[in-house]
Write a structure and sequence with these properties.
heterodimer; A: 281 residues; Rossmann fold; eight-stranded mixed sheet; 9 helices; globular; B: 575 residues; alpha/beta; 25 strands; 23% strand
Chain lengths: 281, 575
Amino acid sequence: MIPSIELETKGLPNWCPGCGNYGILTALKQALSELDIPQKDIVLTSGIGCSSKIPHWVRVYAYNGLHGRALPLAEGIRLANNKLTVITCGGDGDGYAEGTAHFIHFSRYNMNIKYFVHDNQVYGLTKGQVSPTSDEGFVTKTTPFGSVEKALNPLIMALSAGATFAARGYAGNVSQLKELMKKAIMHKGSALLDILQPCVTFNHKNTYEWYSKRVYELETPLKTRNEAISKAAEWGEKIPVGVFFDSDEETYEDKLPQLKEKSLIEEEPKTDIKQLLKELK
Amino acid sequence: MLVNRLVWKIGGEAGYGIQNAGMTVSKIFKELGLYVFATLEYPSLIRGGHNTFTVRADNDRITSEILPVDILVCLDEATLNLHKDELTKDGAIIYDNALNVKAKKIRKDIRLLPLPILEFSKQYGADFKVMMATFAIGATIKLLGISTQVAEQVITMQLSTKGQDVLNSNFEALNNGYNELKTAAFKIEMKPKKKREDLILIDGNTAIALGAIRSGCKYFSAYPMTPSTSIMEYVAKNQEKHNMIMHQAEDEISAINSCLGASYAGIRSMTATSGGGFALMNEALSLSGSSEMPIVIVLGQRPGPATGLPTRTEQGDLLYAVHGGHGEFPRIVMAPGDVTECFNMTLDAFNMADKYQIPIIILTDKHIAASVETTTEFKSDNYKIDRGELLLKVNTKLRLKEKFKRYAFTKTGVSPRTIPGVSNGMQCSIGDEHDEEGYIIEDAVGRKRMYEKRANKNKGIIKSLNNKCIEVFGNKNAKTAIISWGSNKGIILEALKSLKNCKLIQVKILHPFPGAELAKKVGRSKIIIVEQNGTSQLGQLIKQNTSLKISDYLLKYDGRAFTPEEIINHMRRKK
């Protein structure tokens, strides 16, 4: 339990009034405050975009890095100290365009990292361009005649690449989102939580109203990866939210003998090279 | 008769075990108590093509390959065609007796030694190519008066993990090669000396990897790229016993960012690449500058632009290492000139990276990365790991009245750093311009102050490096100074043995450029720049940073390292 006051920082968020990010920030702070993880052991990494500014308004350890590169930062942190709870936040441009390669490999590595993607289906900080998750036909400044591209489905990508946890949340339902965040954080392995996030300034299609009419809650995770992938394909009149897949598998860290006893940071460096030099004689 | 001075070259297609054969011969000479310098030349492919491995041995320390070759071992016809004219007077060619040498116009003085290499090796089925090399080694040692026991001992060490069957077939091939060569008299004889127990046989990449392990580096992430790949392979092999993690990332961008993450969490981290991978790393290099995150990057150069000549050598990325990454931030670029410097500079690099919280680039090239030499065992008993202003202990608690300031303004520009796990040490490391606590700022005054805080580190860096950046070799009173850097050092030292009126001035730290120190060391000497690129990038740095006049340049950009002969010839023509 972390008293919520301890999670406050000196600044106030500068997102647009009504932005879906507020709901996500509230859910994140509530989730962290309710879980039994020492504040000093939580690390948040982020990239670039409206959502990636979130570390400035949650008081935990943070590394706000480059556009699309927040997951590799998290991977280095996790391998250096596998006692930490490592969460990465970013947007759809950050994770599904600039950082696509890292997203796929993160899913495959199964390192114990939680990836929360604030998915508003549009580019916000650069002021309204098309995103990989924009619906086909979506009109933006860079697609004035409507997007000719198919929308990417992040859950299917994560699941087909091997993620051991995949969920979808909705920024308009904070209490449900908080529970999903807690489940993702408590999951052992790579977890994707794609969060439907209305952008009140640049996305006039996928609004609170649009989402509220469509989202419905999945009661339990699907039993198999394939079933979860099929379910994740559902998008249109009805959009399922909740945990699609949750599987307990050995993590990347579990497989490294170096991490069996202590984390790398706790262990004294083994710098004696006598034996290695002997091999060269 | 000459004793213990030899150049031996083996050539064949990729897949013939040329490199292993070269290493076996290098180790045989080392067992005899001799010094060795060996180089591998190969094209960028796995099968076919033309590979050579050249081993030079001597009684005294040698620092470069030389021409001509005394013994040429041809496992294919291409080796004969390409290298027959590199032989010394009365040199020898060992080759397969099926090869028709009559049409090759080989000089009369050269001893032709046809042997049933292929015929013998056929019995080993799929392994015949590798057996050809072992057979040829047998003939080589016979010619040089070396006993089979020494060779068997080396082969046993090399193949210790391959099982007794493999070992036995190699012994058989070795002894057959030895016995098939009927004539033993040759102009050179290798006489065993007392084996020097303090000598090691090592290449630049292994020396860097060893340096990283000695420095307490615990995280290494990279994407394979010639000529740096063997660093990650060496770390991977030894990671478990040295409590490190080697993570082969999905690309260079991931590799360097994960290194920054590991560094943020408090452990020393390193990555290694070549020009193309370094290009992908540039944005994160700049993030290291902004977030003040220590990192050591090995940039092993090869000829560009783009893919260039993947397996050859060049020094075309010097200015790129100095300027790469957007924006302005302090960094150090260092260039080792031999394997010992590869090791020692890596030790320094980690301490400097931590002390100043900056990126350090160790600039090598294929010639130093992959050439193998004997050198005195590395000494590092006095090395102390200095983590600088890092508050390292996890699960401790900071006692502060206010919030921890990761980027606190200090006299030196270096601020204390906490790591996750420390209570009350919460901080945001960041690539945006920021205030002392790491929060994003936009104001002009704050930006100027934070820029100057970072730039201020340069004063300390320059002071730490003072008088350690330049080294002078050869006749100190000589009026002509060859100024060079990196792997050219050994080649020029070899040339200096014949150029008594020249000295070598080696620039070891290329950034911040040691202009004053260089000017002092040059004095009134005439300057000739020797480097492996077409635009004299070192010359450009000298002009930018000093008022020294450069009289002449010797530049090379054909993808092959200089030979001492090229340098000697150039200097003699000048007179």
